[in-house]
Amino acid sequence: DIVSIKLDEQTGLADYMIIASGTSSRHVSALTDKILKRLALNGIKSVGVEGKDRSDWVAIDAGDVIIHLFRPEVRNFYNIEKMWGNFQPFEVVRDPLHA
């Protein structure tokens, strides 16, 4: 359940926002760890992380990309996709070799 939002025309905050759900707090935490490892492998080491201690909602600030990971009920409650209004989602291209 991944949504990618192009932000560069709406705000100077970031170029993209990615929103995804994990099935549980443990899953959200594991997804966070995996994303941080992938960012580091790609040379992005100066990353801000908020919320990992509880893993209900984790925000990862990787500069030009902000990633939000939620447990499903928390995502439904905050509904940040709606907050961004007239966003233009784009298709996420997945690399099966690096999933």
Q: How would you characterize the overall build of this protein?
A:
This protein is an alpha+beta fold. The chain has three helices and five strands. A five-stranded mixed β-sheet has the order 1-2-5-4-3. Strand 3 and strand 4 form a beta hairpin. The longest helix has 17 residues, at 25-41. The protein starts with a strand and ends in a 16-residue tail after the last helix.
List the helices and strands and how they pair.
Elements: E1 3-6, E2 16-21, H1 25-41, E3 48-50, E4 57-61, E5 65-70, H2 72-78, H3 80-83
Parallel strand pairs: 2-5
Antiparallel strand pairs: 1-2, 3-4, 4-5
Estimate the strand proportion: 15-25%
What gross morphology would you assign?
Answer: flat
- Main β-sheet, in a few words? 5 strands, mixed
What's the alpha carbon Rg, rounded to whole Å? Answer: 13 Å
Helix content: 25-40%
Could you say which structural class the secondary elements and strand pairing correspond to? alpha+beta
Total helix count? 3
Strand order of the largest sheet: 1-2-5-4-3
Distance between the termini: 15 Å
Total strands: the figure is: 5
